[in-house]
Specification:
alpha/beta, Rossmann fold, nine-stranded mixed beta sheet, two-stranded antiparallel sheet, 33% helix, globular, MPBQ/MSBQ_MT
Length: 341
């Protein structure tokens, strides 16, 4: 069973959607294309909707199975953050990943015990880790990232001095099976060549009953935002997150919408930090999902001219998403409260 908790533009209140594993064709269409304003939607052999619930549909924008996504490969992400790490905490976070958003996104992770063992995968500069160590002793937290430049920033943060900080690959974690009580990853999945493999690894490293919490972007519906999202990095759809978690073996999968306050719940432009997805590991051991070889071989040589071309285009596309929060902030200041922006 999966529960989808929505609190976006079309639904300012927290609601849940419950789906069984036996989604029929009608149920799949409804699940992929509709957002609920109030109540619970149950799926089974028959589709049942409670009478006290109103429904509004938002057709998901289609996209090809393969996109160029110029910065969704490890080497490109490495160099992207080589420069972005310099201003990440001061320019990027204020527009896309605020402290309020971070704390709200971490709430479903249930970090209630200071002795929990937590891994923060793709922890970068440690901004999300600062939220984790509010609830868990730093000595029990491991920050992992492939970027030494991002991790160098994390090492400078005083509250993280006791954290274990290591370089590593989200799709091939250097932790034993059944290792951690909590797995957290924020702002990392968009750079994974194979998100399903990364979520499978999250399942493996958790103890039985452990919970994974992945915080990431959501796919835009506005045509121009959709174009730049497709050529920059992976912006998953909400239903894709749910599917990846369920395939990996997680139970009680839930998705909570988040976003900057000045967006007033608007999601048509997509969000670099747009949802917090959680799932519980029901059984010990590795994930039941079997996968083939990795999508990307980081040891394989890359044509430097092709790499540079892709990298430049990716940086240009990312500039659009630096401007979007500024645009939304201006609209928030101009448009009176109570009116849509």
């Amino acid at each position: 069973m999966a529960s989808l908790m929505l609190n976006g533009a079309q639904n300012p209140k927290l609601i849940s959607v419950i789906a069984s594993h036996e989604l029929g064709s009608g149920g799949l269409y409804f699940y992929n294309n509709c957002f609920l304003k109030k109540g619970v939607l149950s799926y089974g052999s028959n589709l049942r909707v409670r009478k006290n619930m109103s429904v509004t549909c938002s057709i998901s924008a289609s996209r090809p199975a393969s996109q160029p996504r110029f910065i969704q490969h490890k080497k490109e992400a490495f160099w992207f953050y080589r420069f972005l790490s310099i201003v990440y905490d001061h320019i990027i976070n204020p527009g896309h990943w605020t402290e309020d958003m971070r704390d709200e996104a971490l709430e479903p992770a249930d970090l209630y015990d200071r002795n929990m063992r937590v891994v923060d995968v793709g922890g970068g500069t440690g901004f999300t880790t600062l939220g984790i160590v509010k609830h868990v002793d730093a000595k029990n937290v491991t920050i992992l990232d492939q970027s030494p430049h991002q991790l160098a920033k994390a090492k400078q943060k005083e509250p993280l001095k006791e954290c274990r900080i290591i370089e590593g690959d989200a799709e091939d974690l250097p932790f034993p099976t059944d290792y951690a009580d909590r797995y957290v990853s924020a702002g990392s999945i968009e750079y994974w060549p194979d998100p399903q493999r990364g979520i499978k690894e999250a399942y493996r490293v958790l103890k039985i009953g452990g919970k994974a919490c992945i915080i990431g972007p959501v796919y835009p519906t506005f045509w121009l935002s959709r174009f730049f999202a497709d050529v920059w990095m992976l912006f998953p759809k909400e239903e894709e997150y749910i599917e990846w978690f369920k395939k990996a073996g997680f139970k009680d999968v839930k998705l909570k919408r988040i976003g900057p306050k000045w967006y007033r719940g608007v999601r048509r432009h997509g969000l670099i930090m747009g949802c917090s997805v959680t799932g519980v590991k029901p059984l010990s051991g590795d994930s039941p999902l079997k996968l083939g070889p990795k999508v990307e071989d980081v040891k394989k040589s890359v044509n430097p001219f092709v790499f540079l071309y892709r990298f430049i285009l990716g940086v240009i596309a990312s500039t659009y998403y630096v401007l979007v929060p500024i645009y939304m902030w201006i609209k928030d200041k101009i448009v009176p409260r109570g009116l849509p922006i």
